[in-house]
Amino acid sequence: MSGFLLMGFSDNHKLQILHALLFLVIYLLGSAGNFTIITITTLDPQLQSPVYYFLKHLSFLDLSSLSVTVPQSIANSLEGSGYISSTQCMLQIFFFTAFACSEMAILTVMSYDRYVAVCFPLHYEVIMSPRKSMWALVAVCLSGFISGTLYTATIFSTRFCRAKIIHQFYCDVPQLLKLSCHNDYFAMMGEFALMSVLGFAYFIGIVLSYVHIFSTVFRMPSAEGRSKVFSTCLPHLFVVSLFLSTGYCAYLNPTSGSPTVLDFLFSIFYAVLPPALNPVIYSLRNESLKGAIKKLLLSEELIEKKIIFFFW
């Protein structure tokens, strides 16, 4: 077989259909939420600060990350076939890794943005100028592209000595590691170590930013000021914690010969839920974003279109 066989969650066709419907609902809701944030932060003139600029691109990464794995899994479940070609698998690995590393990088940049906004409010516009924000985004995209290229090049040159059966719903790198020959196993582990160092550096940057943020917040005399800071920082901290914890569990969890329920749960929590939940997490705690959504939904132009559609 030139490609790979994705086993998914079950061999039972009814359970495969249920899995496809569940993933379809998650994909539609996640795509709608991310697309809404992208639209609002692009059109609303009051949401043009760097924090919303990065949030817009985070939503774009989330939307892209969902589109890399979930539609293929839905199609395989509906067709009852888990086959995926080698080219499709390599492309899936490249884009998923690139988007995941870019998301980690942009979460680090967003934590630094919040650090500057809280600790140096008078110099915020100078430090986080539009030009510097653009260059930060370029660095984010570049880090994702390099990570995706390194991962894909390593796996593309790997020889597989075992049956090409992947016990996941997408081409998961830890599962591919189990199929590699003994000599190529250490090359892939070296790539894992390099990416782990990069992820740890991002993690340290986020932790240092939030240590300074919370030390500054607790010294604020105004309860309203503390509430405003927490409304933007806590959602970001929750997203980072969910993404990092599930990601490290998925990639550092020793892969045994037979798949476990935890392997599947970690992959869902890492690859599917964070991109789908990010819009809900940010919109629920951000008053400016909620106000922009209400304004968009209650705009006169939109109401006129609803009335015309109703009578038509």
Automatic annotation (TrEMBL):
Chief place of localization: membrane
Subcellular location: Cell membrane
Pfam families: 7tm_4
Keywords carried by this UniProt record: Cell membrane, G-protein coupled receptor, Membrane, Olfaction, Receptor, Sensory transduction, Transducer, Transmembrane, Transmembrane helix
Regions crossing the membrane: 20-40, 90-112, 133-153, 192-213, 234-253, 265-284
Domain spans labelled G-protein coupled receptors family 1 profile: 33-282
UniProt similarity note: Belongs to the G-protein coupled receptor 1 family.
Name of the protein: Olfactory receptor
Organism: Myodes glareolus (Bank vole)
